[in-house]
Amino acid sequence: MRKISYYIGAVLLISYLCLLTGSAQAQSVLDTGNGTGTDGSLLVLQSRIGSETVLGNAFVVKGGETSLALTSYEAVAGASIIRALVPGEGLITVHLAKYAPETNLALLEIPVPNLPAVKIGNFEVVRPRTALDLVCSNPIMDGADVTASTTEMRNGVLQSTITRPSGAILRVSFSPGIEDMTTGAPIILPTTGEVIAVSLSLELSQINTLRFAVPAQYVTALCPEMADASGVPSYVKVKDGSEAPVKKDDTATDNPNGYSTASYAIVIAIAIAIVGFVAYKTRSRKEKVVPFSNLPTLPEDVPMAFVTADGKVLPTEADIIKIGRAPDNVWVFPEATVSNYHARIRKTKNSSTPYEVEDLRSSNGTFVGKRRIVSAESITPGTIIRFGKKIEVMLMLRTQAADPMAQLGLKKVGR
């Protein structure tokens, strides 16, 4: 009881500490390193479009006084309010700065300075069958709001590139298929850690194992100060965010109050783990039973008999003993690996080998010792026969019951 009291006290202490720090832990989950170049830069978006709440992803492409994040325009098109879950800041209102509907890209202004930015790469270096990764931030909801997230990576392969006037589209296959909303999540080239594309919504794909993505080089059209030597594609038409049907909602709550669902989930998970550990440690341990260690005492007029591993004496009156799962056998073993008519044992006139066993083309075989037999085999006292994978019988002498362990060459197993 004293040990159980200690464990219960530990559960209560850990639960209290988790409640004090649960909110901060949940909101900083994106700050942990994942080796993809998106540490702390991957954001969850929560947009209000009409009467619906639409979830998506965005990733920071430029720090500064106001950080800039890239997403798919589909994640924010027509939204009356856009909020982002920023590590260490919580859920805050963000502003649609620019968007390019033909390329399906949008640039968001995040009112948090110097957020870490991803490295933008050139999609033109990849070829079909190139390995690509999708890094997405899965939301954890507390009521109607996102309060925390978990980062997940999906491994994919580039299938083909589709060229169109407004830019290229990558077809990327994933296994398992994409079944959740990952709009705006980055496609990353594993060899360099560079972001080369932005994922679109799942509805654009007719097969759930395919995913379309817009090359991220077009971020330079939305954010000219990031333009490289290749220049800004002239055919990308960029519009100011004020042209989109998006308006700020100053009544929105930027930071949720109270403990999140994730906090309570952490407490419950820890409590279950500790209770399970206590139950495991305090369980009553049963002594391991060694097969054929409990042999029966045979009558004086019975020099030998067949017995099961747990010491049950089997009938041997018939000259031919049929063995199987079917009820018309002499020995019936209702075990899945035993065939209906599995084997038979026949009496012989040889005193040293009084029986022989023969397999009847069973599915899982008949074994003498550890060897599977292919024809009739003689049985001597002390021989163990196995039918299928589990059923074992032994031809025992009456004298073996006096000291079965010594006869079998076995040692007792304690606790």
* Low-confidence runs of at least 5 consecutive residues: 18-37, 203-208, 247-258, 406-415
**Average pLDDT, all residues:** 78
Query: So, CATH architecture of the largest domain?
Result: Beta Barrel
Instruction: Indicate the CATH class of the largest domain.
Output: Mainly Beta
Topology:
Blueprint lengths: L1 H26 L14 E8 L2 E11 L4 E6 L8 E6 L3 E11 L4 E6 L20 E12 L2 E20 L2 E8 L11 E4 L4 E6 L10 E6 L3 H4 L16 E2 L20 H22 L21 E5 L11 E5 L6 E2 L10 E5 L7 E5 L6 E3 L2 E2 L4 E3 L4 E4 L3 E7 L6 H5 L7
Parallel strand pairs: 15-16
Antiparallel strand pairs: 1-2, 1-4, 2-3, 3-6, 4-5, 5-6, 5-13, 7-8, 7-10, 8-9, 9-12, 10-11, 11-12, 14-23, 15-17, 17-18, 18-21, 19-20, 19-22, 22-23
Helix pairs in contact: 1-3
Written overview of the protein:
This protein has 415 residues and is mostly beta strands. It folds into 2 domains: 32-252, Thrombin, subunit H (Beta Barrel), CATH 2.40.10.120; 304-408, Tumour Suppressor Smad4 (Sandwich), CATH 2.60.200.20. 14% of the residues lie in helices and 35% in strands. The protein contains 4 helices and 23 strands. The chain has helices at residues 2-27, 219-222, 261-282, 404-408; strands at 42-49, 52-62, 67-72, 81-86, 90-100, 105-110, 131-142, 145-164, 167-174, 186-189, 194-199, 210-215, 239-240, 304-308, 320-324, 331-332, 343-347, 355-359, 366-368, 371-372, 377-379, 384-387, 391-397. The strands form 4 sheets. The protein has a 6-stranded antiparallel barrel with strand order 1-2-3-6-5-4. A 6-stranded antiparallel barrel has the order 7-8-9-12-11-10. Strand 10 and strand 11 form a beta hairpin. Helix 1 packs antiparallel against helix 3 (261-282). It is elongated, with a radius of gyration of 35 Å. Mean pLDDT is 78; it is low at 18-37, 203-208, 247-258 and 406-415.
